[in-house]
Amino acid sequence: MKWKRGKGGNRDVVDVRGARGGGGGGFGGGGGLGGGFPIPGGVGRMGGGAGIVVVIVVLLINVLGSSGGGGLEVGNAFGPQATAPGAENPAPIPRSEDPDADLKDFSVYVFEDVQSTWQKTFAAAGRPYDRAKLVLYSGAVSTNGCGSASSAVGPFYCPGDDSVYLDLSFYKEMADQLGASGDFAWAYVIAHEMGHHVQNESGTAAQVAKADQDEQTGADGLSVRTELQADCYAGVWASTVYEEGDLEEGDIKEAFGAARAVGDDRLQKQATGTVQPDTFTHGTSQQRRAWFDRGYRSADPGNCDTFGADDL
Q1: Contacts of 228 (CB under 8 A, 6+ apart)
Q2: CA dist., res. 225 & res. 188, Å (int)
Q3: Could you please report the per-residue DSSP string of 263-307?
Q4: How many CB atoms within 10 Å of residue 288?
C-alpha cells in the first residue's frame, strides 16, 4: 500500500507506550445516527438478538475463550488485574528510541485514512460523525468504558470511549502465530476495528445491545453478524484505497489472508482439533473473506447488511 508519513500531532492519536503509572485514560464521544443513513442497521429484522460484548476483539482470544479449549481467558485480560499505564498523561516514545517508529507511522496513516473515509460518508448523508481515537499502548491499558485490558486480547474497539486500541507487537504475532503477514493485513485489522466505530455511530451497536443474550453466539448469531459487517466495512474502505491508486500488487491477497486467519473455524481447529459452530463469535474463514470482498467489490456500505442476510 502506498502511503505518506504524517507530520504528527494528530489529536485523535494517543500514544501511551512510554507512560509510567497513572490512572487510565478516557476520551469522550459517542452518539447515534438514527434513520435515513445508507449504512444498514437492520438488527430488528432478526427478531431477537443478543447483548453485544462490550469490547469487540479481532483476535483468537475471544474464540478460544468461548470454545473452552486452550489459549488465554478473556477474564484474565480484562479487569482490574491488568495493570495499565495511564492515558491522561501520554508519554510517546521518542522516535529516535522507538523500534516501532515506522509501524506506528503506518498505523496512524491507515487510521486517519479510514477515519477520513467514514467522515466523508457520514457527511454526504447529512449525518454527524464523532471522530474515533487511536490509542497505542504496550502490554496493558486502561479504557474509559471497557475496563482494563492486556495485550493478550489483541486489537480492539471500545465503544465507551470511541477508541481503537492497538499494541503494535500484534503485527509480528499476526505473521508468526496466525500466518497473516504484510502491511495490508495490518491495515485490514485497523479498518475492521474502525468498522465497529461505524456501527457505534450508526446506531447498529445500540440495537444489538438491546437484543437477548441467548441470540449472540452461534453461527447465525448477532456477534458473528456484527463482526462480518465490520469486515465488509473494511472492504468498503479498501475500495477507496484502490480508487486513489494506492493499492499495490498483493495487498488484497494480504487482507484476504488476514480475514481467513481469524476465522472461528480455523482458530478452533488449531486450538482444539475440533470446530463448534454453536460457539462462533466472528464467523468462518470463508465468511470473513467473503464479506470483506463484498465490501471491496461493491464500494457501498449499504451492501454490508449482514443482519438482514439469510445466508452468511
Answers
A1: 282, 283, 287, 288, 291, 306, 312
A2: 18
A3: -HHHHHHHHHS---GGG-SS--HHHHHHHHHHHHHH--GGG--GG
A4: 30
3-class DSSP assignment, residue 135:
strand
To the question of pTM greater than 0.70 for the whole model, the response is yes
Q: Which three cell numbers stand for residue 85?
A: 499505564
| Cα 164 to Cα 194: distance, rounded to the nearest angstrom | 7
Strand 140-142 versus strand 148-150 pairing type: antiparallel
* pLDDT digits 0-9 by tens, 168-221: 999 999 999 899 989 999 999 999 999 999 999 999 999 998 887 778 878 999
Grid coordinates in use for 299? 464500494
Q: How many CA atoms lie within 13 A of 273 on its CB side?
A: 0
Side chain identity, residue 39: I
The pLDDT assigned to 6 comes to 72
Query: Which grid cell sits at 109?
Result: 496513516
- Dihedral sign computed on CA atoms, order 81, 83, 87, 92: negative
Say which residues have a Cβ less than 8 Å from residue 185's Cβ, sequence separation at least 6: 174, 254, 255, 257, 258
Rounded-to-integer distance, Cα 90 and Cα 146, Å:
19
Residue-level pLDDT at 7: 55
DSSP strand pairing (140-142 vs 133-137): unpaired
3-state SS class at 23? coil
To 5 degrees, how large is the angle CA 67–CA 234–CA 167? 65
Distance CA 111, CA 96 (A): 23
Residue 94 — very low, low, confident or very high, per pLDDT cuts 50/70/90? confident
Instruction: State pLDDT tens for residues 27-76.
Output: 222 322 223 345 554 454 443 333 333 333 333 333 333 333 222 223 33
Q: Which three three-digit cell numbers place residue 86?
A: 495511564
**Closest-CA residue to 226 (of 35, 31, 52, 34):** 52
Side-chain-facing half-sphere of 212: CA atoms under 13 Å? 5
How far is it, in rounded angstroms, from Cα 175 to Cα 162? 28
